From TrEMBL, chains A, B:
Residues 1-37 form the HTH tetR-type domain. SUPFAM superfamilies: Homeodomain-like, Tetracyclin repressor-like, C-terminal domain. This is HTH tetR-type domain-containing protein. InterPro entries: Homeodomain-like_sf, HTH_TetR, Tet_transcr_reg_TetR-rel_C_sf.
Length: 160, 160
């Protein structure tokens, strides 16, 4: 908190007038910076991509990002894991962004004709998070492993 | 560090005589407690299980554990994510335990006749980690999602 106030050039008193607790500050930071992070993983809505390609796009970006300097995985996962408390305000924000990703997968899985698009979407989300964690743990490129795993799940679900 | 010394009933001086840095202490804690955690996810070596069942066993335990009180996901993932530094001594310990899980998957995937057992093992490890993260973020049961995802990957890899 001290370092944060110093960097921001505000007094602790001012900081606590803006944010009732440190937890609220973390949650608000995620809420403000989240959309820009999400945007980088989604294709333009008018991109000429099939539903299957729209799903793969997300994993291709993750594979690409992994191992690059300054990549620290998924900030939503990282924050939720650090709090280790589903009731933490920041965990709620993290879940909301994660649900957005799952809904994106479900929408396109449904269009692509998956038998259980919601189930597939949860599976794909877990692969995304597991791949992000792997990249953080190793600090090296995923070497396409995220996309390959998504491909396997899409194949198993009969999505062409 | 203060709370740790208080709980352990030792002086800071003694603590730093045992562990040169706080990082070393975290790494050592993971090294000491890791094996017992791993053991809970593996079947007995003389259990009458097929290679495929041995792989599924790990995910069934994770599904079971998720949502139970005191379950905080995978301590290796959590520690590595918190350090956000692959060069941290605790991250190295975390990776070693994770590699043990991947090797277990690879061994049984190979016996089960998977075309690319090492690749499949990495995919299964990512699913394990992603499922563990999901359970931590939500604080609820995975409701079988980890095992279902493993089943889909095993099917895609032609493992019966």
């Amino acid at each position: 908190m001290e370092r944060l106030c110093q960097t921001a050039g505000v007094s602790k008193r001012s900081m606590y007038q803006l944010f009732a607790t440190k937890d609220d500050l973390v949650a608000e930071s995620l809420r403000v910076h989240g959309p820009a992070i999400v945007t980088g993983y989604f294709p333009a809505s008018d991109a000429e991509l099939s539903p299957r390609e729209r799903i793969r796009y997300v994993f291709e970006r993750l594979d690409e990002q992994s191992g690059t300097p300054g990549f620290y995985g998924c900030p939503f996962v990282n924050t939720a894991v650090e709090t280790r408390d589903p009731d933490h305000p920041a965990a709620a924000v993290a879940r909301a962004f994660k649900d957005q990703l799952t809904a994106y997968f479900a929408t396109h899985a449904k269009t692509a004709g998956a038998g259980d698009p919601e189930g597939l979407a949860v599976q794909l989300t877990m692969v995304f998070d597991g791949a992000a964690v792997r990249a953080v743990m190793r600090g090296t490129t995923l070497d396409g492993a995220a996309t390959r795993t998504a491909d396997a799940l899409l194949a198993a679900a009969g999505v062409q």
